[in-house]
Amino acid sequence: MGRREIGLVSSTLLLPAAAFLAVTALVSDALDLNEFVFHKYTGYAATVLVLVHVYAHWPSLVAFWTGRAKQRSGTETATSRPAPEMVASSRRGISRRAVLAAGGFGATGFAVGWLVRPSDVGRLPGEDFGALYHRASSPGFADALGALVGWGVQPARTKDYPGATRIALPPVTPPPELSVARAVDRRRSLRDYAGRPLTTAELSWLLHAATGITGPGGLRAAPSAGAQYPIETYVAVSRVEGIEPGIYHYAVADHALERVRGGTFGGDLLIAGLGQEFLGQAPVVLVLAAIFQRLRWRYRERAYRYALLEAGHIGQNVYLAAEAAGLGACAVGAFFDDAVNRLLEVDGVEEAALMLVPVGPR
User: How big is the chain by its Cα radius of gyration, in Å?
Assistant: First the structure.
């Protein structure tokens, strides 16, 4: 393949690479993604294509800049002629490639603008569904009347998987003493993890500190509205000593893991997490899901508010427990809901994933 063919191929590939790079940059900025793997590797590919493109057109570039230099220095004679490529370019004017590139970027910008702001958002000026829900769930006279409407019955406060393989976690062993003030001061989101696996003792401590039973009557480590405990904790295990990879449910009443499905799901979580690379590298990813009826029967339209608050309480517990154990965590809210719900085998309506928390050693 000669330079001309290489140039044509690289030019053809540069347009979709540049368009995809622009789209992933916009998505990364709009969703505030970290370690966005699709954008990173597209950038690498675009860099390689640019280098190949420069190589293929190097004689033309040298001829062009050499001619410009001669013009500036006044050494070019009246009989000199510009390079054939320059003559052809000047005759053509705007090239077909430039027109295609402009059209491609225009179409990309239109598509991104269409996708970023769906047509069903913003039904009122300056508002979205989140703002509408927040206002609609504010207490008032209508809230008092809402108590007269049936919101369903109270479900059980725990979930189990009858017949599932159970793995008893070791007794909780708190890490060496670390003051709350020191843990809060040192807490940071960690996205780069050491290569070693977690121990079962470390996982046992994390789950207990996050949402384990710590008091009489089933009271737990994280606060809950009316002690209804809507949050269920799932554990995507990739590398934990003595535990096979898979997705597990934390049976809080027995301090045990119930296997939901076996296999390694780091790659699935990476894709579901919009390409954030550390999700596929962490030895453990905790997934916090909410069963909304546990709150809805009592708190009606404010149930969703409380579920989000409680996921936040548990997430902070994980952060501080990880810090005390010499580990690190990072809460992730940017993910494809349906993809994560399918991994957990929940319906996304009565029970839905709210937060991912990868944890790993420093």
Answer: 28
The model's pLDDT over 322-360, given as tens digits with 9 standing for 90+, comes to 999 999 999 999 999 999 999 999 999 999 999 999 999
Residue 86, φ and ψ in degrees, nearest 5: -70, -40
What are the tens digits of pLDDT across the range 243-289? 999 999 999 999 999 999 999 999 999 999 999 999 999 999 999 99
Per-residue tokens: 225: 């509205």
Q: How confident is the model at residue 76 (pLDDT cuts 50, 70, 90)?
A: very low
Cβ(323)–Cβ(314) under 8 Å?
A: no
Burial class (CB in 10 A: 0-12, 13-18, 19+), 122: middle
- What distance in Å separates the CA atoms of residue 332 and residue 351, rounded to the nearest whole number? 18
CB atoms within 10 A of CB 224: 21
**257 vs 273: CA distance, rounded Å:** 24
Q: Are 248 and 263 in contact (CB under 8 A)?
A: no
Judged on CB neighbours under 10 Å (0-12, 13-18, 19+), 112 is: middle
Give the whole-angstrom CA distance, residue 206 versus residue 317.
Answer: 8
Q: Which secondary-structure segment (H or E) carries 284?
A: strand 284-291
Cβ-proximal residues to 331 (8 Å cutoff; 6+ apart), any chain:
189, 315, 318, 319, 355, 356, 357
What is the secondary structure of 338-358 as a DSSP string?
A: HHHHHHHT--SSSEEEEEEEE
Q: What is the 3-state secondary structure (H, E, C) of 118-159?
A: CCCCCCCCCCCHHHHHHHHCCCCHHHHHHCCCCCCCCCCCCC
Residue 241, SS3? Answer: coil
> Angle 195-189-258 (CA atoms, 0-180°, nearest 5)?
65
Structural domains of the chain sorted by starting position, each given as residue range(s) with its CATH number in brackets: 3-116 (no CATH), 150-361 (3.40.109.10)
Tokens at 60, concatenated: 């033309």
Q: Is 92 exposed, middle or buried (0-12, 13-18, 19+ CB in 10 A)?
A: exposed
161 three-state secondary structure = coil
